[in-house]
TrEMBL record:
Belongs to the complex I NDUFB10 subunit family. PANTHER family: NADH DEHYDROGENASE [UBIQUINONE] 1 BETA SUBCOMPLEX SUBUNIT 10, NADH-UBIQUINONE OXIDOREDUCTASE PDSW SUBUNIT. It comes from the Eukaryota. It is a peripheral membrane protein. Its main location: mitochondrion. It holds the Pfam family NDUFB10. Transmembrane segments: none annotated. This is NADH dehydrogenase [ubiquinone] 1 beta subcomplex subunit 10-B. Keywords: Electron transport, Membrane, Mitochondrion, Mitochondrion inner membrane, Respiratory chain, Transport. One of its GO terms (cellular component) is respiratory chain complex I. Residues 1-23 are annotated as: Disordered. It is found in: Mitochondrion inner membrane.
Length: 106
């Protein structure tokens, strides 16, 4: 017994035949689109989990200096968790989307 030679190949793009105006027109494309959305959500969730583990590690290693040393990781984690999760698709983007960048006054 050994490892399998190849891993299954997944398309990283949305299905071609999916029509958002009439999703039930092509049931196969609808299911493929749903699987695509779920796969993309899981990818974002797992990226956030990895960043959370990095933040935990940084807090433990840096000790009292974690405010300065881990700030960039915390910012990455907060950006990664905005809008990630289940049930946030139909909410306004202002409630769960990324924070708008502050424009500096000249």
């Amino acid at each position: 017994m050994g490892r399998k030679k190849g891993l299954p190949e997944f398309e990283e793009t949305a299905p071609d035949g999916f029509d958002p105006e009439n999703p039930y027109k092509d049931p196969v494309a609808m299911v493929e689109m749903r699987e695509h959305i779920v796969r993309e959500k899981w990818i974002h969730i797992e990226k956030a989990k990895i960043l959370r583990e990095k933040v935990k590690w940084c807090y433990r290693v840096e000790g009292v200096n974690h405010y300065q040393k881990c700030r960039h990781l915390v910012q990455q984690y907060l950006d990664a968790t905005r809008g990630v999760g289940w049930g946030k698709d139909h909410r306004p983007i202002s409630l769960h989307g990324p924070k708008p960048e502050a424009v500096e006054a000249e």
